[in-house]
Each structure stands twice: as C-alpha cells, then as structure tokens.
Amino acid sequence: MRGIVITALLCMALSGYGNIRLPRIISSNMVLQQHDSVKIWGWADPYEEVTVAPSWGQQTYKATGSRDARWELKVATPAAGGPYTIVIKGKNTLVLNNVMTGEVWICSGQSNMEMSAEKGLQDVKAELSSAHLNNIRFFHIPKTTAPYPQDDCAGQWAACDSITLQAFSAVAYFFGKRLSRELNVPVGLIAASWGGTAAEVWTPDSLVHNNPILKQAAARIAPSGMCPYQPGYAFNAMIAPVIPYTIAGAIWYQGENNTGAAGTYKQLFTAMIDSWRMAWKRDFPFYFVQIAPFRYQVKNTGALLQEAQLQSAVHHKTGMVVITDLVADTNDVHPANKHDVGLRLANFALADTYHRQGIPFQSPVFSNMRIRGNKAIITFNHADKGLVIKGATATEWMIAGDDKIFYPAEAVIHQRTVTVWSKMVKAPVAVRYGFRDAAMGNVFSREGLPLAPFRTDNWEVDTK
Fold first, then answer.
1. I need a surface site. Which of 58, 372, 374, 433 has the fewest CB within 10 A?
2. Are the C-beta atoms of residues 345 and 359 closer than 8 Å to each other?
3. For residue 231, which of 306, 266, 223 has the smallest C-alpha distance?
C-alpha cells in the first residue's frame, strides 16, 4: 500500500514539470504535405491542453493530452510555400522554424536506395558543389531495429546542401530534385533504407508469421552479419515511427536479397505495400525499381525475381521502372548510375501522380502472343509510338516449341509488335526476352525506355 501511495505522489509531482514533446519527424526545417490535413502529434501530461498555431493562417488548433500522455491533431495546410513557423504551447512553448509546405515522399529499400556520395557514386558527387537547394529537405533515419513498433526514431530535417547530401540516398535526391524543379514546390524526402535487407524485414511481422507461405519463405532468409533478417524489425524501428506523418507517396528499390524466394515475392511485396497504406490510412502511390541485371550464384533467380516484380506492377496504384540499360558491369549488384534511376522514378510520379502530360514514364511490357506458321508475333503495351532496336540486331530473344527447349531467336520490329523465329523451332509455343540474370536487351520504346524482360510460358525454370 505504501508503495502505491509513493508512486501516486511521485506521478503528481512529476506532472507539474511536464513539458510537451514532439517526435523528431515534427521539427524545424520540415516539409508538410501541401493542400492536406496533416497530423501533428506528440506527448504531454494527461489532460494538458496543447495549442498549435501555424503562421500561414489565423486558426489555432487544440488538443488535450490523453491519459497515456499522448496528443494529436490535424492541421490544414496551404499550397506549396514557406518558410513558416509553427508555435506549439502547453506547459512549455515550442517554436518550429523554416517549415515548408510541398510534396513529401518516403524512400526505402536496400543498398541501391541507400547508396550515396559517401559510397563513391560519381553522379551525385558531381552535384555536391551546386547542391544548395533550400526547397529540398532531407530526413535520414539511421539503421535501427526493434521487435515492436516504435513511437519515435532518430533523425532531423535538414535542407539539401553539399554537407547533408554527402550521406543521403542518391536515388532519392535525384528523384526529389526532378520533382521540385518540375512542380516548382518544396520536396521533403524521408530516407529509410538498409543494404542487404529482405522485404520481410520491412513488412509488419504479423503479416509474415500469420501466413504459412510467407512464414516458410522468411525462414529461408540467411542471417547476415550486416543487417537484420527478422520480419518486421526494420519496419518497427524505421517506418512505424513516421507513419502518422502525411506523405504523397513512396519509392522503393529492393529485391536482390529476395532472389532465393522469388516464387513468393509478389505475394509478400504487394502485402507489404497494402500494409503500409493501411497503417498510413492513405491510398498513396508506390513506385519501385526492378532489380538490375546481375550474375547471381544461383542461375535464373534474378530473372524470376524480375518477373515477380513485373507481376507486382499491376497492383493498385503501383508502378515499376526498368533499368536493364543502366548497368555497366553485371558482376556488380550496385549499378553506379543512380541519376537516371531517380529520374525515371520521378517521371513516373510526375505523369502518374501529378498528371503532367508528355512525359514518357512506362517501359513497354508484354501484352500477348499469336503464332503464325513458324513465327511468333508479340504485341506490347506502352509502345504506342513504336519500338526500336539499339544496335544492329535485336538480342536476348529465345524461342521454344512444345519440347520446352529454348533456342536463340531472330527478331524483327514492326511498329509496336515484334516477330520472333528460329530455324531450330518449326512450331513455336513460347518466347522469352531478357529472361536470364544478367540479360541486357536492346529493344526500347521510341521514347528511350527499355522493354521489360518477360516470358510467355509458365514452365518450370532451371535454377540449378
């Protein structure tokens, strides 16, 4: 009994010294999503009144601390602009300065999203001397794990300059720079990535553990000394803390560490996307990068993962950029060209989310096949202006009959169709293009986007 009384008295005493606190994502230099109702939240004494007064209007917003010492409210934001101040008052006063309104994107994945100027990338190193861009703001979340979802994370908002860009995601930077210039708005980029991580690590663990198929696939993830492998561990510490923060969308570059379980990647990946949207309570767009050509130790595992990503691209408000042409060395899993990756992601967002006209953003993808004699005629979507070959002849085409033996094929383009044949196959049944790990095909749309690797069959693929 005595202990209970002491505890109660201590709580009463401490409540007199309570200060409102904010998560790190709510701070000076941040970008808030424009033309929206954004959430501002934090902690305060139970039943403490909190007021939030942004400088862009006359309205003051009020909230009351819950018995769990939490508070939250929604603030209406104006069109892109700033800088603004936000005054937050309780028993203490906090002033947030240099706040902008604009477009906010979360940028996640593994090493190809994480890589920066510090990692030696020349395309972003060349930007450092001129990278004083106040309209681009970074929030970099350091590598952290947790077995349960967290309320807060390390990090701070900072304007883009030659110092802050050094360690920031190159893909995210080029994406944000393109958006900011084309839309003429401030852009906030939240970077949460970790080299070597599988998609399970970024997915709520309940989704994995409660699904026998995904649970079995997760069990095959090889533990690494450089990153977590437990489902949910990065999501809990690096995504969950910023989920209340209002965003326009997400970009993602990951997949290399799921090549060992490509057969379940579509199910996992689309479930992860849906779980993020559900947690945010926002049906935001999700754009991702198809993994690049690379010589994996186990044959065709990369091709199968690319296929799973292509299948995922038809998921609701989801899009994929193809980068088979941006690779200089197929023995390096980290293509050095991050500028064009970011640019293609930005073009997808500009056309698909922001409805900018005349921007090529979708690579041609397989539509259907018909057989005419000893030839297969393939038709493609997103090739309205036609296809072209970069080089003397089309490469990476294979054709097979019902014996399932594939032979190198010749291919000729007629506008948006390709005719494929081989003298070794009298009665074609199936065609594949770029369907091997290190394939770099040379067929493009007339706008310059590479044809996505594909196959017309569903036969078992040799991974021995």
1. 58
2. no
3. 223
Structure-token pair, residue 17: 């010294």
Chain position carrying tokens 């003397």: 392
pLDDT of 14 higher than 90:
no
What tokens does 335 get? Answer: 């293509």
Element (H, E) at 70: strand 70-76
Extract the tokens encoding 370.
Answer: 């018909």
DSSP string spanning 93-142? Answer: EEEEEEEEEEEEEEEEESHHHH--GGGT-HHHHTTGGG--EEEEEEEEPP
pTM assigned to the model: 0.95
pLDDT of residue 6: 42
> What are 184-227's pLDDT values in tens digits?
999 999 999 999 999 999 999 999 999 999 999 999 887 878 99
User: What's the angle, vertex CA 430, arms to CA 427 and CA 431, rounded to 5?
Assistant: 115
Residue 326, sorted as left (phi over 0), alpha (psi -120 to 50) or beta, turns out to be alpha
Please check whether residue 186 is in contact with residue 82, taking contact to mean a CB–CB distance below 8 angstroms.
yes
Strand, helix or coil for residue 251: strand
- Three-class secondary structure of residue 272 per DSSP: helix
Length of the chain: 464
φ/ψ of 236, rounded to 5, equals -60, -40
- DSSP 3-state of 288: strand
Token couple for 366:
């397989």
In whole angstroms, give the CA distance from residue 154 to residue 152: 7
